[in-house]
Amino acid sequence: MTQVALVGYGRFGRALGTLLVESGMSYRALDPFSEVPEPYRVTSLPELVAGAELVVVAVPVPRLHSVLEALRPHLRPEQLVMDVGSVKVKPVEALAEVLGTKVPWVGTHPLFGPLSLAMAERPLRVVICPNPQHPEAAGRARRFYERLGCEIVEQTPENHDRVMAHTHALTFFVAKGMIDAGTGINVPFAPASFKALARTIEVVRSDAGHLFAAIQRENPFASEARSHLLKALEEIHGELERLPPESSAQEAGHMAIPAPQAGSPELTEARAHIDQLDRELMELLARRTELAQRAARAKAREGRPVLDPAREESLLAERRAWAAELGLEAEAVEELFRSILRFSRRSQAKGN
Ligand SMILES: O=C(O)C(=O)C[C@]1(C(=O)O)C=C[C@@H](O)C=C1
């Protein structure tokens, strides 16, 4: 059984611990700032790393260097050390500087967090940054993450941080700007375009704070990406302000964001949207299945039967009410959910 030593038991460390147990791996954890539950708790670094195949350092990026220094004397050459930071250039520099060739190490960034794990989002992706000092380490990290059900992408630390500066950092930057400008997410109505952003706003709000700071301040490319965005926004704002109020649709038209498939016939466009929605429905079904299997495992641990007719009845009644609210035929929707429940029970039986 793979024994993992988790250095740091914050929000990510704890979520990773749950995933490890679900994947049949055992772990122990140490964190002077967080409560570690009894079966996993150890009280010192030597006790933590003794016997571990893998040492996962899940601490805020600015603390990584000093934590690695504290770990170094207790590590053995057959172990593998990984970080899980949201940026990669600086952590990989710290790993190279502190551990060098003494112990195999590799920089990794799991692109999922406690929220996406709780919501059973799929796929779980991980970026791994192979390094020439330990050419075999990336393969070992890959096998570990694949056991957790993750998909792997290999990148250099620089490429990773460049991409993250324009995606992760800018998304969080915009979301934080909207929070500070007073955007509320619990509004009585909102366009679909806002819903995706509302999720990010929620993530930024629920974050301990160090994630936001790390993805902005520890990424060497983030400052430039933010400046470009601000400049582009200023220009758009200026152009909008300068447009005369009576400007024609054509005059204002050059500001419109071009449609990906301009001028497509109505049927083709409707079908493209239907395909996209069906794909999303399928992804939601996959996540629902995962959550139902999780519920089944929880009930098995409590010694309760998996089948719960009372829950199913109340669930169906609630879906009927939701259907009515949305102007859908309640009987048809109930029928659909009866089939989803049959499917769910079959996958629970298979998943156990
Ligand atoms: O909620 C639970 O207890 C589940 O196991 C999930 C679920 C479902 O798919 O919604 C599946 C089977 C139970 O009979 C009730 C509900």
Automatic annotation (TrEMBL):
What are the residue boundaries of the Chorismate mutase domain, all occurrences included? Answer: 261-352
What keywords tag this UniProt record?
A: Coiled coil, Oxidoreductase
Pfam families in the record: CM_2, PDH_N
Q: Which residues form a coiled coil?
A: 267-301
Domain Prephenate/arogenate dehydrogenase, which positions?
2-274
Q: What is its EC number?
A: 5.4.99.5
Q: Can you tell which superkingdom this protein's organism belongs to? A: Bacteria
Quote the PANTHER family the UniProt record gives: PREPHENATE DEHYDROGENASE, PREPHENATE DEHYDROGENASE [NADP(+)]
Q: What is this protein called?
A: chorismate mutase
